[in-house]
Amino acid sequence: MTTSREKRIRARSRDVVASAAGAAVYSLSLGIASVALPLLALRAGYSATEIGALTALSAVSQLVTRMFLGPAMRRWPDWTLIAGAGLLLAVSSGIVALSAALVPFLLAQLLQGVSRACFWTGSQTHVVRGSGRAAGALATMNFVAGIGLLAGPVVAGILSEFTPALALAVAAGIALLGMAPTFLLDRLPPFAPPADRPPGRIWRRPGVDIGCWAGMTAGGWRGLLSSYVPVALDAARQSASTIGALVALANGASLVGAALAARVPPRWSARTVLGGIVVTGVATALTAALAWNAGLSAVVLLLSGIAAGAIQVLGQATAAESVHPEERGDAIAVTGTFRAAALFAAPLAVAGLVAVVPLAPAVALVGAVMTAPAIGLRHRTRLPEPS
Q1: Residue 123 CB coordination number (10 Å)
Q2: CA 274 to chain centroid
Q3: Which fold has domain 202-376?
């Protein structure tokens, strides 16, 4: 006869598997779309400037959506956000697969930004509500999601040999398929924050502030890796295959960093985050200056990737474990908002600087600014006890 304890263990295992499967499938669809969308735009005759503006629109919609997700999770369960995100991603990819006109492209980018905000906030919030350590749950989800994001561009490249529209149609189908694991998740209720919440903004609270600034540094790293790092490598006359390999190395390193984060003892989390912020910023600052040498580029990208992957996981875990359990949705949402802001702001800052200074000093300056949170939080090496 099955005991109640065995039932709880089985339910928990089902929830963990469903969360991981949903993250992997969603990330695969997103990875395909992230490559197929600009390829389709190029073939449809859009200029590089127009494609950049469309991509920025997605980032803005993601940032704005994240700002409202804390209150949203007090009204609706997190699993509804995850399911809705899959549907929005499917619609986003599907409409441009049918038409490459401007209005479908605008709508696709807007919907993709909303989808990404809802999925990552909803799924990360869901896994930290379990009984285990938040860092371990987040590390597992980020790792499987990273695999999907690595595989997606490969699939997009193969399918786009026929037409990018086919790749986007496949991405839409995968996104719909990814909704299935959502219905196996635990039906956790919406958050009900305690009446005696501390006054002031949640992002200013000890522990949550570390998570926010860690998210900002990790977001800045991701934004530059997806924009000006390849540009710097190309300007240094590295081959396309070398650039692809170096970016893949950085992405893979971030998966390693996320996995290692789960092994960091709680008492070392704050110190690790602060050290990781410094390593991420300094290594990022050196990427453009060392772009002439593939070996040195590999070293700094490897270091920055491991550090960025680790601080993203530990930062969110620190924030989630520093507040009341019913406030974890707000904590995850606000750290994600900081990350999304940096994802958009870092490339924009470099774009403004290159108008007056060369690319290497511009990237170096932005990388140096990414270390600033560690300087401001250097005395914050002890955290409040988890609620």
Answers
A1: 26
A2: 19
A3: Growth Hormone; Chain: A; (1.20.1250)
Q: For residue 327, what are its two tokens?
A: 């406030």
CATH 1.20.1250.20 fits 8-184, yes or no: yes
Token representation of residue 294 = 């593939």
| Rounded Cα distance, 297 and 242, in Å | 10
Contact (CB, 8 A) for 217 and 281: yes
Q: Each residue of 14-44: pLDDT tens digit?
A: 888 888 899 999 999 998 888 788 888 888 8
296-321 per-residue burial string, b: 16 or more CB within 10 A, e: under 16: ebbebbbbbbbbbbbbbbbbbbbbbb
Give the torsion sign (CA, 358, 360, 363, 368). Answer: negative
Q: What's the chain's length in residues? A: 387
Is 189 exposed, middle or buried, given 0-12, 13-18 or 19+ CB atoms closer than 10 A? Answer: exposed
How far apart, in whole angstroms, are the C-alpha atoms of residue 350 and residue 369?
Answer: 12
Which residue type, as a one-letter code, is found at position 310?
Answer: A
Per-chain mean pLDDT for the chain? 85
- Phi/psi at 262 (5° precision): -65, -20
